[in-house]
Amino acid sequence: MKFKKRKRRSLWIDVAFSSAIMAMTAIALLLIFNTSDRSTNASPNKSKKETKPEILVDSSDSNFPGVKIVTETTNDPNNPFAIQYPQTEFTDFNDEILEYIDQWKTRYLKSDSDKNSTTPKELNISFETVQHKSGNYSFVMLTTISTSESDSQTEIRTFHIQPETGKGIKMTDLVGGDVEKLKRIAKVVRDHIYQNPEFKDILLAENVWTPTEPLWKNYRNFSLTDDKIIFYYDAGVVTEESAGPAIVEVPLEKLNPFLAEEYQVEVAEKSEGKKVALTFDDGPDPKSTVRILETLKKYDAKATFFMLGSRVEYYPEIAQQVAEAGHELGNHSWNHPSLTKVPDKKLYDEVQGTTDIIQEVIGQPATVFRPPYGAVDDRVRAITNLPVVMWDVDTLDWKHHNPQKLLAIVKAHTRDGSIILMHDIHKATADGLESVMAYLQSQGYSFVTVSELENY
Description:
- This protein is α/β, with parallel strands linked by helices.
- It has helices at about 10-50, 90-110, 170-175, 180-195, 250-255, 290-300, 310-315, 315-325, 345-360, 380, 395-400, 405-415, 425-440, and strands spanning about 55-60, 70-75, 80-85, 120-130, 135-145, 150-160, 220-225, 230-235, 245-250, 275-280, 305, 330, 370, 395, 420-425, 445-450.
- The termini are far apart.
- GO terms for molecular function: hydrolase activity, acting on carbon-nitrogen (but not peptide) bonds; metal ion binding.
């Protein structure tokens, strides 16, 4: 049998085939390596993935019907917080509370911790519930942000709700919407701040006037109990910032005449005796006012002087004597026009100019306002934040200039709580004041300023 001789394969084919095998092997190894590398790298990433901080929310019943206590806490070591707030069945109220909470959360999360502090920053919000016999709840929210052991911010805010209706009480409700009553409440609150012994060393006396002005916005932050109103002021507003928020408690008894009937309290009969307020308009005068001051001092009496700005400017030293003697100063306009008949610009200048000159000369503001001629309307009342004070006994001393008639009118018309109108620019008034005061004292009257009367 013959065999055919096989043709020998080309060398180049073998080389090409071997090269292809090697290339495929290299690619396979590379793929295996890359897959292994990705797998190796992926594992640490998964292990390093941070768990999102958990916020725990709990709700429980409170001791007050219709109110639940919601508690929020977090395990975030960098931004720990503990928050409690009230919740009711009323959406609008709940939304108002949540908006307040969210504002503080946002502010807190944006704050930075003190790098040198050994304690982390922290947010705490808690609340106290105060109830009034009307059913109204006042929720007093206390918020504190701490960024270090020595650096913290504290705020007190109040929210109100009647759990049966969902409506919240406001200062306008307490005074029946009467701005004149708010003006009188403002005076009482201001006096309580000045006289509070706890504020003796921390009071910012020069700051007290502005946050206590009788503006509705200044009297939003309060709580109401059966026997008092508690007002809250942020740190640094009326007291030094380091002292924290200031709390001012005013007995409802002190505010009774200015409150709407449903918020008044029963007041026990007091045996303080009868009171009368002597008031003097149109001064100061270098002769008559000085004589009147001497007579008042003789009876250890305090009075109220409603001054004209133009005369304070002309006789500043007499105005100072009145203030230094402890009497109350009132604004009586600049030039004594009938304020209901002047244009707005003139009205403003008459009142504000007098306010400014009294502050400049005396170093303290007037505390009451009396319109010339008793001419007053809503426009005049709105131009000043001072209580508008009238009178119930007009001595007509400006008309008769007679000391005997002055005394006769006082005898005929004065009663407990009367406000007596006189003028300290007339010689006859200065002449007759001694007899007037002797008579009133003999009838058991004590002399007080207008603001010291319970209802003026």
